[in-house]
Write a structure and sequence with these properties.
Elements lengths: L6 H11 L4 H8 L3 H13 L4 E3 L6 E3 L1 H6 L7 E7 L5 H11 L8 H21 L4 E9 L2 E8 L4 H9 L4 H10 L13 H8 L2 E6 L2 E6 L4 E6 L7 E8 L6 H7 L13 E5 L12 H8 L7 E5 L8 H14 L4 E5 L3 H19 L1
Parallel strand pairs: 10-11, 11-12
Antiparallel strand pairs: 1-2, 3-4, 4-5, 5-9, 6-7, 6-9, 7-8
Length: 356
């Protein structure tokens, strides 16, 4: 009876019955569910069938039927998992099977989602110490949004404790640098950094502190909020019409010149985030900015919205640090005339030291 069922026959059955159920079809034609599912999955990849519903109650319809009856496609996917032997690729697979709207998205959007979601879920699984992890996903109004939520120790508190930092704001600063992890033997610390770069908006909300990276502006916000989220909530937004590709972001933060090893060796520092008072004059402030940056080969200092920096601040970065790590390339951007003067002065003194 296998010869009597093929992809063309399945399309015809879906056209006749409107809704095609795999179990009933397999029984009717005397074929295995495995064989039938292979045919159905091929048709889904070819865009000739659309899956509706979760694994148990799933059925399949023609794309035209789904367009005429949008109410059959769920606008939102939400589940809570026990954090016991939980694996992000298993969760991702269950979402792809149960949330049909993902299949309609362009390949670049799906790959960004798969990367960002897997990284954030993995963080919750391995770092939060939470017994339950909730996920939510929606595709509405040309925007893909997902959230990962736990009830654990809190991302900022965890980084503070592991790295002996003084405040949640210092934890946010370190996370924005990249390569910050509380498990250095098994993690590179790149997940949050790159996830914050590949979407339109990225939010970390934990125990009354919130970090927002809004790439549409572009800008970064660190704030204390009144509504306290116990644990950590990650929110990620991405416009489904975006032309961005993952490789675009990876290349931006990789120094790919001659002889380079193509690793994550470039970072961008928004100087304005390293003091709440908006004054940048001391060596201690500069050292806080520089903490952990010796891991990189290229550092871009963004002085946007910085009106003044002190001689000591500039000297610590562009002479002292540069002298200690001469192999690291220091770059600058968005400097006004006063900041440019101080930075260039420190750089000149560094050059004079080399000559002597």
């Amino acid at each position: 009876m296998v010869d009597n069922i093929n992809k063309d026959k399945l399309i015809e059955l879906a056209r006749q019955s409107k809704k095609l159920f795999a179990s009933k079809t397999a029984s009717r034609f005397g074929v295995s569910r495995q064989y039938l599912n292979r045919l159905i999955n091929e048709l889904i990849k070819e865009g000739k069938l659309v899956r509706v519903g979760s694994t148990r109650g799933a059925y399949y319809v023609l794309p035209g039927y789904a367009e005429q009856h949008p109410e059959i496609l769920p606008a939102r996917y939400a589940r809570t998992f026990d954090n016991t032997s939980l694996e992000e690729h298993v969760v991702l697979s269950s979402i792809e099977q149960g949330y049909t709207l993902l299949e309609k998205l362009p390949d670049n959007i799906r790959s960004i989602f798969a990367y960002a979601f897997s990284e954030m879920l993995n963080n919750a699984i391995e770092h939060s110490q939470s017994k339950k992890i909730g996920i939510e996903l929606a595709v509405q109004n040309r925007m893909l949004t997902f959230a990962v939520e736990d009830h654990g120790i809190g991302v900022f508190r965890n980084v503070m404790r592991q790295r002996d930092l003084a405040s949640e704001f210092e934890a946010m600063q370190d996370l924005l640098k990249g390569k910050t992890t509380t498990m250095p033997r098994s993690h590179s610390g790149e997940g949050i950094f790159f996830t914050s770069k590949v979407g339109d908006r990225f939010i970390l909300d934990s125990y009354g502190y919130q970090l927002t990276v809004d790439n549409r502006l572009p800008d970064v916000f660190m704030e204390k909020v009144k509504k306290i989220k116990r644990g950590t909530r990650v929110i990620f937004d991405l416009n489904t019409s975006s032309s961005l590709h993952l490789n675009d972001i990876f290349k931006k933060y990789t120094d790919t010149g001659a002889g380079k090893d193509y690793g994550f060796d470039k970072t961008e520092i928004r100087v304005k985030l390293y003091t709440l008072a908006g004054i940048y004059i001391s060596r201690s402030q500069a050292r806080r900015v520089l903490a952990g940056l010796e891991k990189f080969k290229v550092i871009v200092f963004d002085f946007d919205k910085i009106s003044v920096v002190g001689q000591a601040f500039a000297d610590e970065i562009f002479r002292v640090f540069h002298h200690k790590y001469p192999h690291i390339r220091l770059e600058t951007e968005n400097m006004n005339e006063g900041v440019t003067f101080m930075v260039e002065r420190a750089g000149t003194e560094a050059d004079l030291e080399k000559d002597h």
